[in-house]
Structures are given as C-alpha cells and as structure tokens.
Amino acid sequence: MNATRSQLTDKYGFDRWGKDWFIRLPNGNVGLLNPNDPEAPPTDLRAIIDSLNQRGITAPLLLRITDFLKHRIQLIHNSFNSAIQELGYEGTYQGVFPVKVNQQAQVIDRIIEFGATYDFGLEVGSKAELLIALSQNLSQNAALICNGVKDSEFIRLALLSQRLGYNTFLVLENPNELEQILDLAESTGIRPQLGIRIKLTHRVSGKWADSSGDRSTFGLTIAQVVEVIDQLRNRDFLDCLILQHSHLGSQIPNILEIRLAAQEACRFYTELAKEGVPLRYLDLGGGLGIDYTGEHSANVNSINYGLEEYCHNTIETVKLEMDAAGVPHPCILTESGRACVAHSSMLVFNVLETTHYDSDIAVERDEEEHPLLENLRSVENFLSPRRVQECWNDVTFYRNEIRALFRRGQINLRTTAIAEKVSLHLIQKIIKLSEESDHEQEGESQEEFHRRTADILHCNFSLFQSLPDVWAIDQIHPIAPLQRLNEEPTRRAILSDITCDSDGIIENFALAEGISSILPVHKIEEGEEYYLGVFFIGAYQETLGDLHNLFGDTNVVTIELGNNGGYDLVHEQEGDTVSEVLEYVEYDPKRMLDAFKTRIEKAVTKGDLSPSDRREMIKDFKDSLQGYTYYEH
Ligand code: PLP
Predict the structure, then answer these.
(1) What are the Cα distances from residue 186, in Å, to 177, 180, 488?
(2) Are β-strands 281-283 and 61-65 bridged in parallel, bridged antiparallel, or unpaired?
C-alpha cells in the first residue's frame, strides 16, 4: 500500500469495518482502495464528490463502486473453490444472486458481467424479476432459480426458457404449484428441472429470525415433501426433481447456527436420496452476513465469522453428512445477496445546518436581572469536575423555572432568551468539565450525558428513501465524515434527515470503540461543505425506500477506480424530479401548473400581483417541478 495512513487515532472504526475498502489519507480525506489491485494508490473520495459537484451532480448521491462488486463476486467464488480443494469435496460450487436484494439494472448488468466466468446465476422471486433475468445474457451453466409464488404465466415463461438455453430451475414453494407445472410440462413436452424448497425447523437468530424455522412463510413441511415425492413418482416426473432448496436466513450472526441449519438441510437431502430422488444440487439460500460494525461477534449487526470460515464450514458440513450417508457430493449453490452487493454502494450527503445545545458565547450581565436569572448565573461559581452532575441539575432547574414563568406570562421574551443563552454557555462549561472528570453519576454514563447535549446535524437526505432498514429495524451502517480525518473531531452529534418527521434520525453509530449513540464530528465552519458517508448500503436499501415527504430517488453515480488514484464515471442516473414524484402519487403536474396560473391570473386582475411577479412565480413553479427533490444550493 503506497499511502501512509493518517496519524490520528481512528475514531470511526475504518480499520475495523472498512480496512479492505477504505483508508484515511494524510490530507484527512477518505480514500477508496481498489481491492482488485492492492498496489494501486487510493482514490480520494472527497475529491470525487467535489469533481462530481463541478459537473452538476450534487449530494445527496448514491455512489456505486464497480470494483468492490467485482471483488466480492470473485472472493465468494474463490473462497468456496479453495474450501472444496482443501477438503477434497467432490462436487462443485455455483453462486446465485437473488435479484430482490438489488434489482437496479446497473447492478444486475455488472453481476452478470463479472460473474460470467464463474457461471454466477440469478434467483428470482416474482414475475418481474424473472423478466429481468430472461433479458440477461446468462452463461449456459449459470443457474436461474425460480422461487416465489408462481402463476401460470410465470410457470410457462420459466418452463419455456429452458428451450432458450437457460439453466432454469422451477422451485416448488407450495404443493399447489405442482399440478400446474406438471400439466404444462406434459402439454409442452418439456421435462422441467424441478427444485423443492424445504422449510427447515432450525431457527437462526438475528434480525431476520422469522424467515427461518417452523413459522417461516415459504417452503414445504416434512409431510408436504413426502406428498410431493409421491405425486411426482405417480406422474412419472420424479427424475425431474434434481435440486433441493432451503433459505437459511439473512445476516446470520453466528457460524454455529449456519452449520446446524446446513446440517438439517443435508439430512433432508440424504433422506430424499434414499427415497430415490435423483438430487444433484443443494441450494442453501442466503444468510452469509457482513460485519457492519467491525465487532466480529455474534451481534445483530455483526458476524462472528469471515467469508473463508463460512465457505469452509459449509463445504465441510455437507461433505461429512453426505459421506456418512454414502450419498455423492452435490453441486452446492448459495444465494448470497447481502454479502455480494452491500459493500459496493454508499450514500453521500452534506450537512445543511446544525442545532447546538451549548454555546461558547458568554452573555453580558444587565444591571438589574430577574432573581432566577441571577440564580442561574451563580451556577458558574460552583463549577468543578467533582460537581458536574450537581451543576447540570441546577442549570436544568433554573432554566425550567424561567420557562414556566414565561408560559404563565410572568417573564418576558427577552429575559427568557437571555436565560436560554446563559444556560447554553454554562452547559458548554459543564461538558468540558465532564470530559476532564470522566463523569459518571447517578447511574448516567458519560455517553448518556453527552447524548443529551449532542448537536443535531440536519443533513440533506431522507432516511425513509435511502436507508429504510435504519428506520425500520435499527440496522447499523458505518457512518463517517469524508474529510478532516487528520483533525480531532471536537463535537458530538446525532443526525437528522430533511423529512419533517422525528423518526428521520440516526442515533446509533459503529465507532472504533464500539456502538455509540453519538457521532464525533468536526466543528463545521461557516460556508463549509461537510460531507458524511454511509457505507455498505448496496443490499436491500435501494428499492425498499419510500417517498415519505416526497423525497425521491437520489442521484446515482457508478464509478470504476483507475490504477493511478483516479476514477472513470461509468454511469450517471439523475435523481427523481419533483414532477416525477408527484406523478407517482397520481398528480398531473401540467394540471397543477394550470391551476396555479389561474390563481395567479386572478391576483394580477385584482392588482395584487404585477405582471412581472406573475412571470417570476410561474418560472419558479416550473423550475421547481423540474428540480431535484432534495435541498439544492
Ligand atoms: N434467497 C432467498 C430465497 C431469500 O429470501 C433471500 C433474502 O431474504 C436471499 C436469498 C438473500 O439473503 P442474503 O441477503 O442474506 O444473502
């Protein structure tokens, strides 16, 4: 690695969660490493954002780095192959990308391109996803796994796709599908490649525990499996059942659980083999997690294993089970979505303004001040590291008393404003003392205390649109400033988006020292563009987002890293315009403009607006319709 790392301690945990991808550059900016070319100098991420800005591509923006995606596909494939060789496994491995995890055309196109040499396939769970897969130039051996509830159109398309040279597997999700598939197979004369999805009883932990175990919604129960085999035998189609599928879960934190679930899947496989089912493929679904926090432990946002260990354990488990039952080693498939794409996208946004809960400005004393204000000021005389909590309590008490008097009309606006300023200044002094004293009193940790006084950074993005899992299931993604990493961050903050909703807040951060409710940030100077990056958001986030407050899709830029620290802009997709999001929610922008014009015309006729006001207002209305839904400078 050519670049020297920044000398300052790594507050944000880059070295924990991001060491293969990011580096802190000596100029304080985040650098992007090229995992496919470790000798290449890093590319300055902040410089990329600035140069995109100059081209008119502004934040918030979703940045996709194709090199990261390529690396993950290669790594997953190679890790499985290494385990196969090391353990003397006699079957092969094939990766499959579940389209639901990121359906964006730019992403799917790249996966097909990078995966071609490894016969990397696709998994689809709906008709729309099947159409995406059928429009791709999948290699002949790449598996096309059809899961999900299937209507007759879905079944017909999937079945006939075998004639087009696709390696399609129709996976039975429920027993009712079987008759339709077999009727069609008979009428078309196509022998289908059938799979059977088995509901494992083993329940894994983590945020997606419900997608595993007895109560999971998809797959056949043991009793149904037996019925399906009998039906297939009766109709002379048993030879078509060649794949067994089970989805172990998603972001499984503990490797032991993966082993146990894989073991159960193998038990089914070997039992089915004994029943005379000619299975050749074992599809273990998703579940391979990524370490969002860098903790390397079995916590919900982390994993206690690495990719190599996952591959080794999976191959070993299957080998042991197959050998014990004397069954030939199957071709193993996995449908790793998150582990494939999560690393390759990040969200970049700028801070619009800051609300402070302390102040460095002292307020001059007036000759005659309200006695409560006097009392408030007197707290300063008692400030000492030993009395942090006491001083905090006193400031809170007097400030609340003054606020109560204001509400009752017994104190005026100006006095109350002075009291607020005095309180903020005192709070700043108390915070400084608490840092010196390692304050912990009355059961409140220093972190909790700092959380109460943290700044709120108002940031140019929508949590609901761009980070839905952070809102819905408290997913933690690493977040860090993209600049000034060679300076000590002197402020603490939580982040608020620009939706008018108190839920649009981020208050869990993966830092070097562990999970924290506050993010260290730098004091933002007047006029400074301060950018924050949210990392590893390539899985699930891009299409789950909603239009809360009508903030639409962000600008999206796909880049490829150069070998000289530069980059190529591979693709640019402009974010939604206001007009587009209005159409999503059934407005007709043209009719809206007409209605607005009619209203304006009336005001001009009455003399309330001048004709030039009219022109300006209509121009603003039209420009807004065509503009970005986010804050524009
Ligand atoms: N396969 C199936 C059938 C799924 O339902 C899912 C996700 O829910 C996946 C694969 C992808 O899982 P992961 O993203 O954990 O790899």
Answers:
(1) 15, 10, 71
(2) unpaired
pLDDT < 50 regions, the chain: 1-4
Q: Which of 100, 301, 542 for a ligand 1 pocket mutation test, highest count of atoms within 8 Å of Cβ?
A: 100
Residue 569: which residues within 8 A CB-CB, separation 6 or more? 52, 557, 558, 559
**Whole-angstrom Cα distance, residue 200 to residue 203?**
8
CA 592 to ligand 1 centroid distance, Å: 42
What is the whole-number distance in angstroms between the Cα of residue 22 and the centre of ligand 1?
Answer: 27
Instruction: Select from 36, 19, 78, 614 the least CA-distant residue to 291.
Output: 19
pLDDT digits (tens, 9 = 90+) for 403-450: 999 999 999 999 999 999 999 999 999 999 888 876 565 566 778 888
The pLDDT assigned to 437 comes to 75
**Structural contact between residues 105 and 570, judged by C-beta atoms closer than 8 angstroms:** no
d(CA 533, CA 346): 7
Q: How many CB atoms lie under 10 A from the CB of residue 625?
A: 16
Does the predicted TM-score (pTM) go above 0.90?
yes
Residue bearing the CA closest to ligand 1, atom 9:
286
Structure tokens, 57: 């591509």
Task: Count Cβ atoms below 10 Å from residue 159 Cβ, excluding itself.
Answer: 20
The rounded Å distance from CA 468 to ligand 1 centre is 17
Residues 129/158, Cβ–Cβ less than 8 Å: no
Non-local CB neighbours of 205 within 8 Å, separated by 6+ positions: 252, 253, 254, 257, 298
335 Cα nearest atom in ligand 1:
10
Ligand 1 atom nearest residue 338's Cα: 14
Report the candidate in 293, 216, 276, 297 with the shortest Cα–Cα distance to residue 250: 216
pLDDT tens for 225-235 read 999 999 999 99
Collapse the DSSP code of 442 into the 3-class scheme (helix H, G, I; strand E, B; otherwise coil) and give the result. Answer: coil
Burial of 631 (0-12, 13-18, 19+ CB in 10 A): middle
| Spatial separation of the C-alpha atoms in residues 518 and 306, rounded to whole Å | 28
Residues 6+ apart with CB under 8 A from 19: none
What distance in Å separates the CA atoms of residue 247 and residue 337, rounded to the nearest whole number?
12
Instruction: Supply the pLDDT for residue 211.
Output: 64
Q: What is the CA radius of gyration of the chain?
A: 30
Partnered with residue 332 across adjacent β-strands are 93, 282
**pLDDT on residue 90:** 98
C-alpha of residue 581 to centroid of ligand 1, in Å: 29
Angle at which helix 255-274 crosses helix 307-325, to 10 degrees, equals: 30
Q: β-strands 61-65, 555-561: how paired? A: parallel
In angstroms, the CA 413 to CA 399 distance is 14
> 243-279 burial string, b = 16+ CB within 10 Å, else e?
bbbbbbbbbbbbbebbbbbbebbbebbbebbeeebeb
Protein residues with CB under 6 Å of any ligand 1 atom: 98, 101, 123, 147, 211, 247, 250-251, 285-288, 335-339, 539
Distance 559 CA to ligand 1 centre (A): 26
Contact 346, 62 (CB under 8 A): yes
Residue 441 confidence (pLDDT)? 59
- Residue 376 burial (C-beta neighbours within 10 Å; 0-12, 13-18, 19+): buried
Q: Cα separations (Å) of 28 from 23, 42, 45, 153, 343?
A: 10, 13, 11, 56, 22
